[in-house]
Amino acid sequence: MSNNMLPLNMTAVSTETVYNLSYTVIKISVAIVVTVIVAQLINRALAAYFKFATGKLKVDETTYAVVRRLIIVTIYLIGITDVISLIPGLPDLVLGMAVSAGIAAIVLALAAQQVLSNVFSGLSIAISRPFRVGDVVEMENEYGTIEDITLRHTVIRTWQNKRVVIPNSRLSVDTVVNWTIGDLTVLWKVDFGISYDSDIDLARSIILDEINKHPDVMHENNREAKVRVTELGDFAVNLRALFWVADRPTAWGTGTEIRESVKKRFDREGIEIPFPYRTVVYKKDMARAG
What we know:
This protein is an alpha+beta fold. It folds into three domains: 2-100, no CATH class; 121-178, SH3 type barrels (Roll), CATH 2.30.30.60; 186-269, 2-Layer Sandwich (Alpha-Beta Plaits). It has helices spanning 2-56, 61-86, 90-100, 102-111, 113-128, 168-173, 200-213, 248-269, 283-289, and strands spanning 136-139, 142-149, 153-158, 163-167, 177-178, 186-194, 226-232, 237-245. The strands form two sheets. It has a five-stranded antiparallel beta sheet. A three-stranded antiparallel beta sheet has the order 6-8-7, covered by helices on one side. The model has no long low-confidence stretch (mean pLDDT 76).
């Protein structure tokens, strides 16, 4: 009698185990799908609200972007926690590992130090706002517009239309020139070199004339263009032209156009832009001359 019941009990246990396992897998799958759907819906809702709010309220895009990503990350963390709680025995295992693996936690924290540094730097950027999405900045000879700020990195669209991805930890310690904060006007410089035989006053008047004729140069009373002699070089007298323009994106193009127009005027007016040259005197020639 007992021999006949044993296969039936084993079958019943196996069926119950398969049922419980299938039910757990379904719950985990539903939790994952719900988490992803909820995160995507909230992300789209926040994006739509931002577009609506920008039309009526003064909403800072930088703070909004970081806050939105924090909300999405929180939703995924809640979903992961829910999935862990659905797996039998896993919550106790995770708790036991968290209590007993102090050394492993320290090692993990050291390994993730750079990632955590980027995250905290991203939060610091969102709070202190040294630059914002849309600002024109310059860092390490890269000039462009802030396109996006995430928890880990910042994306800069350069004037060449490249996307430079910079970790937030670097932005928190390196020098960033923000051309957008405060007064947008820029004092721009263009350097010229003329020969020692050329007339400095004539060269200065030509440069000032070309600057004042340019439509993008500002002509307020307290922002007049100036030309100064900056150096008596080895083969040229170096002049520096200083003038004001409305903003940094305008400055570079204005400088190139003024440089070209001045070169053409120099050619017509007989102002020489010298090539580098060097005079070599041999000692034996000096002895003969003496």
